[in-house]
Amino acid sequence: MGKKKRSLFLMALFTAFVLAACGGEQASVSDDEGIKVVTSFSILGDLAENVVGERGQVEYLVPIGEEPHEYETIPSDFQKVSDADVFYVNGFGLEEWLERLVQNVGDVPIITVSDGITPLPISDQDGEDPHAWLDVANVITYVENIRDDLTERDPDGAEEYAANADSFIAELEELHTWIHTEVESIDESKRAIVISENAFKYFGEQYGFDTVGIWELNSHEEGTHSQIAAVVDTIKEREIPAVFVETTVDKRYMETVANDAGVAIAGEVYTDAVGLEGSGAETYIKMMEHNVRTFVDGLNQ
Ligand SMILES: [Zn+2]
């Protein structure tokens, strides 16, 4: 191949590459179904759905009822993520299975929607506590990150994303204020959340609760005799009136704690997933309202 011929060939190749790249990008968000978003778990799914609105579809991977820390991916997850325009994850180490997944899903952009939030440490070891979404103020940051990413990815939808995010953030601000008001009815000395996985640290920091878990993270779940005994001691010392269980965690450990401490399990709360259809906690806002009512009722005994 002569010099001139070769540069023409390279130029043609380059042009084809650029065209393919542009064509691909446009097709991904302007086809009939709109933008395709996949999130790692159901709570992020609900947040994304509120921002995407009518402009596309949102799916999530970890089924409701399963916990997202040590989730085992199934073959259809790889397909879902490969077919998506973007994959939203929580970060702070929540998705311990992420590395395995992303090795097999091509070049789908993976966006960490907790960006900009200062993580809390895990109490008894190195690492970050992933449960930032249990503080509504953090969730407003998640929503802003989702809005900004969608706007960049699909600029034609900018106005719609902005309007959707604005009205959702207004609802979240209302929820945030409501929680602060609602928890005031609980005596300060009783403001402690005892739960299997110590997932309410961000919630506690924001809304004024101490939190006690049998273990720190579900992925380090143990429930040893000494862990159970330590929680029982704390309940007795502090005269905490009630304990709680999660929808996504084995309840037997907390049943032992409740028995040994002589307190009631005052209800089930949502930490790592929204509720199933018909539960009354199908959305992030509803699950937070349910949690707060359960805490207020349980701790006011
Ligand atoms: Zn968790």
Automatic annotation (TrEMBL):
GO terms for cellular component: cell envelope. It comes from the Bacteria. Its main location: other. InterPro entries: AdhesinB, Bact_metal-bind_prot9, Lipoprotein_PsaA-like, ZnuA-like. It is found in: Cell envelope. GO terms for biological process: cell adhesion; metal ion transport. This is Metal ABC transporter substrate-binding lipoprotein.
